[in-house]
Write a structure and sequence with these properties.
Blueprint (H helix, E strand, L loop, with lengths): L7 H12 L5 H13 L1 H17 L9 H15 L2
C-alpha cells in the first residue's frame, strides 16, 4: 500500500479545521505535506489566512440580516454540490 495522500478537494474541505488547530496530528501532517508540493493549495491557504486576518474582527452582529441570509444560502448551496 502507498502512503495516504490528501487531495486538493479534501484539503479545501478541512482547511478551516487546519487553521483552527482542530485537525488530528496525522491529518495535519498530510495537509502540510500536500501544501508543500501543491502551488495551487499554497495560494489557497495564503488567501484563507489573509481572509481570516482581514475579517477576523467581524462578528455576526456586524452583518446586515439580508447579507447573513445570503451568505448562509451560498454556503448551503455549495455544501450540497
Amino acid at each position: 500500500m502507498g502512503v495516504p495522500e490528501l487531495t486538493c478537494k479534501e484539503l479545501v474541505e478541512v482547511i478551516t479545521d487546519y487553521l483552527e488547530g482542530r485537525l488530528p496530528p496525522e491529518r495535519r501532517v498530510l495537509f502540510e505535506e500536500h501544501v508543500a508540493f501543491c502551488d495551487g493549495c499554497q495560494t489557497y491557504l495564503e488567501q484563507m489566512r489573509a481572509t481570516v486576518r482581514l475579517t477576523g474582527t467581524l462578528g455576526e452582529d456586524d452583518l446586515e440580516p439580508e447579507a447573513r441570509t445570503r451568505l448562509l444560502g451560498v454556503f448551503r448551496d455549495w455544501k450540497g454540490r
